[in-house]
């Protein structure tokens, strides 16, 4: 098959690993920088261009690896491939929903999936009340569209929380506040789901000088056994968002597992190293199972 790997760069471990496994399986892979794609509407059929080249009918499947800064344009390109009946490993709407933490948590809560106590607002006049809604400090302050632990702040006192929140509100920055789960002790779970099946899971433990447990921030990782409840949450969160491939982040609290967020373009380096699972190969097999060799 001919595969389009939608990414701004191949010089990223996860993207290059996926390309490597497609080539090993005998498929043709082309890197398509979605920021250089255009869509022409009108006429008999919408056309998709990569720079000046018409790629409307060039591929049997697309694998989106959409970055945070170009989410909406990238999702729009994926949507056009979908409307042209090209298989995608992630639905365009799922990409948009997963990118925004508030949208994800709203949907998860509606579907009965447990999440931490969360407050989002744009009102700078009742910050103290917002903090009290979470039981007081410490609280976690997050940018609504941050990734890899960027834009995540632990405010250990009401004074520091109020200072940070006031500043972000005055900068018109979209944030959310969450309760601090002390018993998690700087640990969370990353679970990779492909084709509604859990293919790998690891525990991430933050370093001594950072409460964030992201691999990009130097967290330690190890393979982990999941409980039936954790498996249920991960699979159903992915289904609800419409993602064929996803990284689901959970935290273990005294009240059971809580969903933190879902990533539509999960990194592979940390989890492949921690578990020994060839996650990239499972993505290839997912595409082989579902894409049509239509050309």
From TrEMBL:
Every ATP-grasp domain range: 105-288
Keyword rRNA-binding: no
Recorded GO CC terms: cytoplasm
Cofactor: Mn(2+); Mg(2+)
Single biological process term from Gene Ontology: SOS response
Gene Ontology molecular function: any one: ATP binding
Record has Magnesium as a keyword: yes
Pfam families the record matches: RimK, Rimk_N
TM helices/strands, residue ranges: none
Keywords assigned: ATP-binding, Ligase, Magnesium, Manganese, Metal-binding, Nucleotide-binding, Protein biosynthesis
Superkingdom of origin: Bacteria
Protein name in the entry: RimK family alpha-L-glutamate ligase
């Amino acid at each position: 098959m001919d595969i389009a790997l939608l990414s701004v760069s191949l010089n990223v471990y996860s993207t290059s690993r996926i390309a490597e496994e497609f080539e090993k399986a005998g498929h043709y892979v082309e890197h398509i920088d979605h920021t250089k794609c255009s869509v022409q509407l009108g006429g008999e059929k919408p056309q998709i261009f990569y720079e000046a080249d018409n790629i409307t009918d060039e591929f049997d499947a697309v694998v989106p690896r959409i970055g945070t800064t170009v989410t909406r344009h990238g999702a729009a390109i994926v949507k056009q491939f979908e409307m042209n009946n090209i298989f995608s490993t992630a639905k365009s709407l799922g990409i948009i929903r997963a990118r925004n933490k508030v949208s994800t948590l709203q949907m998860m809560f509606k579907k009965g999936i447990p999440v931490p106590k969360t407050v989002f607002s744009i009102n700078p006049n009742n910050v103290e009340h917002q903090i009290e809604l979470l039981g007081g400090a410490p609280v976690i302050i997050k940018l609504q569209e941050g990734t890899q632990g960027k834009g995540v702040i632990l405010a250990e006192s009401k004074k520091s929380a109020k200072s940070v929140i006031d500043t972000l509100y005055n900068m018109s920055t979209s944030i959310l506040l969450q309760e601090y789960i002390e018993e998690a002790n700087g640990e969370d779970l990353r679970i990779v789901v492909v084709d509604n099946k859990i293919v790998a899971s690891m525990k991430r433990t933050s370093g001594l000088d950072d409460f964030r447990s992201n691999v990009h921030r130097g967290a330690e990782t190890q393979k982990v056994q999941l409980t039936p409840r954790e498996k249920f949450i991960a699979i159903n969160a992915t289904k609800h968002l419409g993602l064929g491939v996803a990284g689901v982040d959970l935290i273990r609290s005294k009240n059971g597992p809580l969903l933190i967020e879902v990533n539509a373009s999960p990194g592979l380096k940390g989890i492949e190293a921690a578990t020994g699972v060839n996650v990239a190969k499972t993505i290839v097999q997912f595409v082989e199972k579902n894409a049509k060799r239509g050309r």
